Structures are given as C-alpha cells and as structure tokens.
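Standup, Tuesday
Yesterday: got the pipeline producing structure tokens again.
Today: sanity-check two examples.
Blockers: none.

Example 1:
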Amino acid sequence: MDPNKNTREEFTSHLVALPIPDFAAPKWKKLVQRSKVLLDKLAHHPAMATNLQQTYMTPANSKNNIYFQWDFVGRTLSMFYRVNPSLQGLSKQEKELWEDATGRTTFAKQLILDEMPGMLDMMTEKTDPGQKGAHPGFGDEILELAKHLDDD
C-alpha cells in the first residue's frame, strides 16, 4: 500500500482483510478481531465520508473525533500485526509493542466511551480548533463495540 496513492478506505479494507493465523493466541486473536470490526465501523461512519476517499497522506477534510479514533485504532491494529500472533518467544521489541498495542486498545475504549470526560474532545480541538462544539456522536453500534474491545 502506498500512502500517497491509496485511499483511507483502501487502507481500511487492507487491514480488515489481513488473515488471522490459525496459531494465533486467543488474546491476540480476540483483540485483532474486535479491532478490525471497530476500524471498519469507524471508517464507514457518516463523519468519515469526506475523508474516506482521500489518500492516506492527504490532510483530512474533517479532523473530527471519528477520524482521530479511526486513525488511532488503525495504527494500533497494524501494531498487533508486528507482534508474533502466538505470543510465544517474543523479542524485547515485540513485548514492548504488545504492551503498547494493548494499552492503546484500552485507551481507545476509554476515549470512545468518554470514560475520561471530555478528553477526546479536548485532544481533537487542540489539533483542529474548528471542531470545538461540533463533535459527531459515535452511535450505539460503535459504543457497544468499544465496551467489549479489551474484554477477556
């Protein structure tokens, strides 16, 4: 995939279509499966419509909360794929990456569910002050997915 040529929709489709190896540890498999579903739902949320057909590297038309979570969850998903799915014999770098990715999964859940009230809005507005007070809702389906994102 070329971030200067491929769209955000193509990047999303690519990540969602990556296979889950048969030998994947249950925890790895569960986090990756749930992240894929959430990423796809975020990508196809109405608030992403103006961003989805842009190339990955093009500055987003609308840097809203949905966009930021789409980006965050997508980057986290790609981190999972850089860790041995069996979670066996991990190098020091893979262990750190696993810890980062699982921590990011919890953080994504907290931001989407607003467990740290206003944090996502504040982060979005810091990057794009034009978003102040104009935050799209995630919708029930995304909220429900986020609730179970890091469940065991």
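Example 2:
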Amino acid sequence: MSRPEDTLPPELFYNDSESRKYTTSSRIQTIQSEMTHRALELLALDTPSLILDIGCGSGLSGEILSSVPPSMGGPHEWVGMDISAAMLGVALDRDVDGDLLLADIGQGVPFRAGSFDAAVSISAIQWLCNEDSSDDTAKARLARFFGGLYACLRRGGRAVCQFYPKNEAQRGMISAAAVKAGFGAGVLEDDPGTKNGKLYLVLTVGGGGGAGGDITGVVRGMEGVDVVDGRPGRDKEREKGKRGEGRKGGKAWILKKKEQMERKGKVVKNSSKYTGRKRGPVF
C-alpha cells in the first residue's frame, strides 16, 4: 500500500472528497484521539494554554484540546494551520472552536515570537520531506518550519509532533533539523516493533525538559516508552566538554592542527605554555 505522501502534495491529496472521508472515518477518529491524548500527556500542561495545532486538518485534534477538563489543566485555546483549503473548509463546517490559518508550514510559521505556550502536530510533519521541485528541498522546508516553530514558542515551551517517517534516514533528517533550529529533542516510540508503533518527536525550547534541555529528562520513568535522544553524538560531546578537549581554538585543537601541518612539511611556530591561551583586552 502506497503512502499518501508519495502520491500527491497534501493540498491536492486532501481534496473535498478525501477531506470528508478522512473526517467521518470512525477508525481515523479513534486513532487521532489516541495520538492527541498521548501528545497532551507529553506536553504536560497544568494550566489552560494557547496551543498551535500544526497540520490541524478538519480540527479533530483541536476539538480534544478544547474539551480538556479543568481538572487536567484545560480547556485550552488553539490556533490551527493547514495547507489544505478543503480540510479547513470541513473544519469551518464543523464549527470548531479554534482559529484557522491556511498556510504551508514548509514556508515557515508566521506568528510573533513567543506567541504560543505549546504546539502539537498529528501525522503532518512527514509531508515536509516531499520534494516537489529541485528548488525547494526537504532540508530547506524542514529548516524553515522548525526555525519558525522555535521562534513562536515561549521560552520553556514544548512541542509534540507525532509523525510517520518513511525510513530511518527520514527520521534522522527530521530530528536533526529540529536540533539545528535550537530545540532540545527526543524521539519517543510507543509499541516499538509492532504495526501499531507510533513515533513522537518531543521538543523543548530552552528552560524546559531536564538538565540542559535534555528531553530524556522529561519522559524518564514513563512505562513502555523507548526513548532515543534526537541529538547524534550528544554523549560524546558531553564527555569532550568534561575533559576540555576538542574545543575549536583550545590548546589541544591547536596542537593537533600544528601536528597536521608539520606532517605536510609546512613551517609552524614552536608551541609554548601560552599556546591556546586567551588574550586579555588591549587598552
């Protein structure tokens, strides 16, 4: 069975017929509800918040955000954005509570800095990996999306994006783009190795999560969740930082460069106890 992402761009795939079919499917409604509740659990909001619903479609997730009881930190207000005019048309017909915006998330997230307390996305961000033209690459679309998302979330805010990557390479490309934008990131997998497996990219904006924004601190102790830190080589970098090695411009880095140049037959200055030291201000 082919993936929808491999057939047409989302604004064409989700036409009037497909949008209504998607919205009225009891199976889709059940799955969407489960994933939205899981995302809310990971967002861990204890007060009513303003949430950005990315790829909101016909508002199935938004309805759940609006119906969170006060005892669970709700109800939440939300703004939804989607590239499919047909999907948003169905949302308007259903008279959902949230505000709606027709926009392509691959071109950025057009809101003021710090506008939202949190963000949620269900089954949407994998569409960013489609390359409809050579001028608009997947990496460029992901960079614009995560850069805009990072900017529009308040400090300490969190985003949860459930997604269906095509393969490991796509999964890595998405999480790497989030990290490059500045997020603390982690990929959580529910029911790993089964056909019901679900992936959640959990993101924090500085000040959230565990020490240093490490998302693994957010989900520590959650039963049945396989956590993978989305930052490749993070442990190695942390160890390097502890030893003071590998820092560009540091003494170890300079000595290594000198050694490389000497092997190439180039003349280099002699090293001394002052090598790699920072110079004080000159008056």
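Quick observation on example 2: The chain has a mean pLDDT of 83. Strands lie at 50-54, 77-82, 99-102, 116-122, 153-163, 184-190, 198-204, 225-229.
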